[in-house]
Every structure is written in structure tokens, then in C-alpha cells.
Here is the input.
Amino acid sequence: YYRLGIEQFNESSFGGEDYSHGSTVLLDAIEVQWQQFCNEVLSRDPHVCLESISIGILYKFFEWRLNQKAGKDGRRLRGTTKSSSLGTAWKVFRLVYERAIGTKLDPK
Here is the structure.
């Protein structure tokens, strides 16, 4: 029974997405904001910025993100009004970092 199960096991059904659609949307949004910050503010490659990340860069990224008034196509952004939203953005950024670099970012 077990040998037959191993021989007939379909690995492709386990190779799918790690995140739900909503999580992927959040990850992509933070990644786009990171690219904008690195390209427009720092004039550096976003991947190089991630590789040489520092607390100062992180602080200024989130400060820049909070100060954004216009989003895609000039649409007005709602802004961040709750600290939990900033905490979520930090957690999502850590996942973006891990996805790009391959190692975890220290949560502190």
C-alpha cells in the first residue's frame, strides 16, 4: 500500500504557491514601493539595496512610505492611520526581503 502510494504520488500538487492571493497582493505592493524608493530616492538598484540594507535605510523607507500622498496613476492614498497597519507592513517587508535574498531579516 505505501510503496504503491509513493510510486503514484503526484509532486506537482505540492509545488504551488506558498501564499494566498491576498498575501501575494500585499507582497507585490510592498515590493513595488521598495523599488520606487530605491530608484527615485536613493538612485540605486533595489536588489543591491536589499543586500546592503541597514536600519537607516529601513527607517527612511517606512518614513517615505508613510509620507506618500499619491499612489499609482496619481490616485490619492488613504494613508496609514493605525499602528497595526505599520506592523503588518513591516512583517510583509520581511517576507519580501526573504523572498529576494533567501535569508530571514532579523525581526528586531
